[in-house]
Amino acid sequence: MERHGLVLRLKPGARAEYERLHAAVWPEVLATITRSGIQNYSIFVKELDDGREHLFAYFEYHGNDFAADMAHMAADPATQRWWSVCAPLQDPIETRASGEWWARMREVFHHD
User: Fold this and answer.
1) How do residues 10-52 score in pLDDT, each as one tens digit?
2) Would you say residue 111 lies in a domain?
3) Of the candidates 25, 98, 14, 24, the residue with the CA atom closest to the CA atom of residue 55
4) What is the pLDDT of residues 56-108, one digit of tens each?
5) Domain boundaries, position 70
6) 11 within domain boundaries
7) Whether 22 is catalytic
8) Euclidean distance between CA atoms 103 and 46, whole angstroms
9) CATH number for position 25
């Protein structure tokens, strides 16, 4: 099992719509997440000192080939439509790696 943490900003004024969408995530998107080996998936929101709202996502990957499973998810038509609805509400951070939308975070501590 691999733990993953990701961070992203919300565009100003987007929080209510983002929360409305995530209160009723499309069932086919949830099914693709599960088929892709992702469990215990959560997204948190926090306004930081700069006044901007940031999202923190956490999930656990229980598969054998993360890159292949993420490629399968990215190719799913329902997931692509979901991302097209969510993306206009999001503002990726400047320090993300090339090719990232959500910036990956490095785990520095874990305790079970």
Assistant:
1) 999 999 999 999 999 999 999 999 999 999 999 999 998 888 9
2) no
3) 14
4) 999 999 999 999 999 999 999 999 999 999 999 999 999 999 999 999 999 99
5) 2-105
6) yes
7) yes
8) 16
9) 3.30.70.100
Count: domains in the chain: 1
Assess if residue 88 is contained within a domain: yes
In a domain, 110, yes or no: no
Closest by Cα among 73, 67, 82 to 36 = 73
Q: What is the DSSP letter of 1?
A: -
Name, in order, each residue with C-beta under 8 angstroms of 58's C-beta and a sequence gap of 6 or more.
Answer: 3, 4, 5, 6, 40, 41, 42, 43, 44
Q: Find the catalytic residue in 22, 54, 72, 110.
A: 22
CA 2 centroid distance within chain: 15
Average pLDDT value for the chain: 96
Site of tokens 């691999």 = 2
